[in-house]
Design goal:
heterodimer; A: mainly alpha; 9 helices; B: 105 residues; alpha+beta; two-stranded antiparallel ribbon; flat
Chain lengths: 250, 105
């Protein structure tokens, strides 16, 4: 549709927004597919939190951009190349280990990002960060628990989680290829990389997992709107209704 | 039987159990039974209880107790336990006259 985001801060915030929305959509797929009822509801709750966060961010973006497009326009009327989520969150839910692996790697990253956004010059952003951090800290407790449970549970659960981590690892590198925009709106991107790595290292050790090797991949950056093959299908599901019935109200 | 999974300093339990959930709405109020959850251990039980029962600000504190740790009146003995009090209305405070000037009773 050609929704251009012009303001720099909005361009930065859309990265966080899209990451939360796409992970929310992936988690929503787990609704009625959880390993047991309680975890099913827990994942749906996390999904709703992510969509709530995405909507708040889109409202901020819409205001910064002068209100030309609404939050719904941004969510439902942008194509793949206009989405700026990290590729990690668009990866499929092959099994429960994949779901929790993605969630955990994401939560550790976002916990650091939102902690730095507490110091944002934009009061709406810092206010949101304060609220969001509580959600993320809970989500992190939950996902980290599952990493430990699966990691030290049985040989089967350990190997499934290790397989998931090995597959997902190639989408981890781009998280830390911070550009000028990231550096403008985050206080200290270097410390994000450092903190993330040390948290991951200690948890993997505790969970009896191997940190996959960092092989260099030539994967084009999500910051430029590049994706894996999965995003198109996610958007097709997510955007079908508002695109097919543009006048629908909910 | 509960087996303990031990790896370094982490202890987690194996095997599904049922836990009863109690919520406290505000500090100082009594806890109310709201339902039950399935979980393997305490940590999972308290998280599951949070996810199932506190999404709409229903409480500020949660207790979970393993159902099998709750002692209840043996099945079939309810009559013996409770019926004898049915015909003793004098055990209620309704025969007590409230002195004048006392509010809030």
């Amino acid at each position: 549709m050609g929704i251009l985001i012009k303001n720099k801060e909005a361009q930065f915030l859309i990265r966080l927004t899209d990451t939360e929305i796409i992970l929310g959509q992936r988690l929503a797929e787990m609704c009625s597919n959880g390993p047991f009822l309680e975890e099913d509801i827990a994942m749906s709750n996390l999904s709703l939190d992510l969509f709530g966060r995405g909507e708040e961010l889109l409202k901020i973006i819409s205001t910064i951009e002068g209100g030309e497009f609404s939050a719904d326009d941004y969510a439902y009327r942008r194509n793949e190349r206009e989405y700026y989520n990290i590729k990690l969150v668009e990866q499929p839910n092959e099994d429960f280990a994949w779901v929790m692996a993605k969630q955990y790697l994401h939560d550790v990253y976002m916990e650091r990002i939102y902690t730095q956004l507490l110091e944002s010059n934009n009061a709406e952003v810092s206010g949101l960060a304060e609220k969001v951090l509580k959600e993320i800290q809970y989500s992190l407790t939950h996902s980290k628990d599952w990493i430990l449970r699966l990691g030290i549970g049985t040989n089967e659960s350990n190997s499934r989680l290790q397989v998931a981590m090995n597959h997902l690892w190639k989408y981890v590198q781009e998280l830390f290829l911070f550009d000028d925009l990231d550096n403008e709106f985050l206080v200290d991107t270097e410390s994000i990389t450092k903190d993330w790595n040390s948290e991951i290292e200690s948890t993997f050790k505790e969970a009896n997992l191997k940190v996959p090797e960092n092989v260099h991949y030539d994967i084009r950056d999500y910051r430029k709107g590049f994706h894996s093959e999965h995003l198109g299908l996610i958007l097709a599901t997510m955007q079908f209704l508002p695109r097919a019935y543009p006048d629908a109200k909910w | 039987m509960i087996e303990l999974l031990k790896y370094k300093n982490i202890t987690m339990e194996k095997g599904d159990k049922v836990w009863e959930v109690f919520l406290q709405k505000k500090a100082g109020l009594s806890f109310k039974h709201v339902g039950s959850v399935h979980a393997y251990d305490k940590k999972m039980a308290i998280q599951n209880a949070r996810d199932l029962y506190t999404r709409r600000s229903e409480g500020r504190e949660i207790w979970v107790v393993e159902t099998e740790h709750i002692v209840s009146v043996p099945l079939g003995q309810a009559d013996a336990y409770f019926d004898p009090s049915d015909d003793k209305p004098y055990r209620h405070a309704s025969f007590y006259e409230i002195p004048e000037g006392v509010e809030n009773i």
